[in-house]
Design goal:
6 helices; 0% strand; elongated
Length: 122
């Protein structure tokens, strides 16, 4: 099965920083492309830890997802691998120079995407 990176238009404007440009041209399309894998991995995470999101109110569900992305380094590294593994060589070189900021952005985008897709987790 081959996946193609979606093209997200209208995200890059004049005066956009290099990091923002990278985020909008590379990170967001990759996270969108990996959506089903990200949902499946989070569903698996919940199952392994016997966390039942269904019984929690909406606010607590979102809080629990945020907590995972703040505290579980193994899961965060898995998510980073899902995205970084799709970088081209040039993208990886840019990533290497800005890894901490880009990692933060990858995790933030992914966390928000999972929160916005809570209905897909059950």
């Amino acid at each position: 099965m081959t996946k193609e990176r979606p093209v997200l238009s209208d995200l890059v404007n004049e005066g956009t920083s290099e990091i923002e440009k990278f985020q909008n041209e590379v990170l967001r399309p990759l996270v969108k492309m990996q959506h089903q894998l990200l949902i499946a991995s989070f569903r698996n995470y919940l199952q392994k830890r016997k966390i039942d999101l269904i019984v929690l109110p909406e606010k607590k569900k979102r809080s629990r997802i945020s907590s995972v992305f703040k505290t579980d380094n193994n899961y965060k590294n898995l998510i980073l691998g899902f995205v970084i593994g799709h970088f081209s060589e040039d993208e990886f070189l840019f990533y290497s120079e800005n890894s901490s900021e880009i990692n933060r952005r990858i995790l933030q985008i992914t966390s928000q995407r999972i929160k916005d897709s809570i209905s897909e987790l059950s």
